[in-house]
Amino acid sequence: MCGIAGILLKGTTALDLRAPLLKMQEAMAHRGPDDTGLYVNPDGKLGLVNRRLSIIDLSPAGHQPMPNEDGAFWVVHNGEVYNFLRLRDRLQQKGHTFRSRSDTEVIVHAYEEEGPQCVAGMRGMFAFAVWNERAKSLFLARDRFGIKPLYYYEDGNIFAFASEVRALLLSGLIEPIVDRVGLQGFLAFGSLPSPYTLIHGVRALEPGQYLEVEQGKVQARSYWSLSFQEGLITEADSVDRVSACLEESVKAHLVSDVPVGVFLSGGIDSTALVALMRRHHNGPIRTLNISFAESEYDEAHYARLVAQKFGTEHTEHRVGVAEVLGQMDSIVGAMDQPTIDGINTYFVSRLSKETGTVVALSGLGSDELFYGYRTFSNVPRLLALRRVPGASALAGGVSRLLTETEKTRRLRYFLGQRQPLEAAYFSSRGVFSPPEIETLLDKEWASSAEPFQPVEHLQNLTACSFDGGSERNGREVANYVSWLELRAYMHNQLLKDTDVMSMAHSIEVRVPFVDHELAELVASLPIKFKTDGGPKGLLIRAMGPDLPREVVSRRKQGFAFPMAPWLRQEGAGYRKEALSLAQGVLDRDGVDSVWDSFLKGRVSWVRPWALYVLAKWMERWGL
């Protein structure tokens, strides 16, 4: 795991690259405390920097930026390519020579040999850049699910990229102006919907894309999408194949020259990882858990049960409201972009660091693949409601007769949309609807802002993996929801938050469920096999007796924080701070109304929290 960045000058632009490059490098010090590197090409037009967290090949031979044999190609890389040894063998057979045992060196030789097509053979989480000195071209690539971040900026003079938006901001080359569409996107989802960021001109390279910069022209292309075409297979074979593929993924994710642990909640996903890790890890397994005084949020009992069953070295830390408040500035500071989530990952990553566990596995991604979220039942229910004659008029009448709540607002918005499936998903996952966002924005500021349409944004995502003739109202709806959970919620929120919160403590988190071979397998299976047995039924059958009965039968809880009671108890200061920071972008009356509605129990904690985080983040960057 690392932080990478680079600058390419366009045309006749002249600039000493070292100063901005070193600023970008320093901005990402937390991403790589073990080593630093800088390369500027002979004509001074291209510069690359790296901050290294040593995971594979801890020797100086893994230093980045890294060249090929003759220095014609240079690479900086963040992440892990888990099948690098197989790729290395293939490249050696073609005459390539290697000086290290690192996966980074495999990348530079793979690009030299195959060009952009090299990414198709890589399995893992990665974001990298390769400079071709012969062609004077720059190549960027990102893994299929966007596990590892990569942002870029271009204008008439420069093209710049980095693992974090903050590195681009601190380079001194970019004027920090709020992206008005991105800000609305954050209010809609509680995270920045890719490719938007909160900074005008800065964009995220999309998952499964590569980008080429040559002769001043920038072009991005997709190299992967997930197909949901069902194959012919029996249910028994489905279970066996999922079991084998998941075990293979976990085994691949254990490749490391430093200790590997597991974030253990005591749920099905993390328990499955511990069980599979036990099969392939002879040494002690470290497990880490965050617990709470609030019993309805506390999962520590189940985590202890799993730790005892598999004989792990278990560490638990109890978090209370005082500790969260005391760390709030650090938590918001860790956010590369504003987000409503990630506090849990911040604390469990800190615990991981304290125990010397540099790499940790997470169960993230299982709910998206194996239908674990409530959205898999909520979306079909909403679609069924839409087919009821007069439903729209009834919803409008109810909202006029009763005190309007978050649920009635969501229902009314959903029934007024033309794209029912994406609207149903947004009604289940969204934070503020476009009409609500309009009331939250300062009127003068919003008058020049292009409106963000969340339902259209989601429709563009479904168009990537489904053709127009696909069934959108039957059992196949589950495939649409699965893709939106993977591509919208998981990518834009969970993976981003996991990356920045773990990197704040120089910890690498790996996600074996977010594996493209596993995803392709599960996507190809008949939906009936994935829905039989309820949420995660297929995963439970694939794991068999390895999952303790108490874990399988427990009510799904999720790795959540008791934010609602904490905000009610200590939120007065946050409310005041959000109001004082909101001027110029947010409407004070709109912000105040959201806090009132929360305290009266009409809306969830997510809404006031989103406004507070946004205000704090903007204050930090002087926006």
Summarize the structure.
The chain has 623 residues and is of the alpha+beta class. Helices cover 45% and strands 15% of the residues.
Q: In words, what does this structure look like?
A:
With 623 residues, the protein is α+β, with helices and mostly antiparallel strands. It folds into 3 domains: 2-222, 4-Layer Sandwich (Glutamine Phosphoribosylpyrophosphate, subunit 1, domain 1), CATH 3.60.20; 235-366 and 485-553, HUPs (Rossmann fold, 3-Layer(aba) Sandwich), CATH 3.40.50.620; 563-623. The strands form 3 sheets. Strands 2-3-1-9-8-10 form a 6-stranded antiparallel beta sheet. Strands 4-5-6-7-11-12 form a 6-stranded antiparallel beta sheet, with helices on one face. The protein has a 5-stranded parallel beta sheet with strand order 15-14-13-16-17, sandwiched between helices. The longest helix has 27 residues, at 477-503. The protein is globular and about 70 Å long. Residues 398-402 have low confidence and may be disordered.
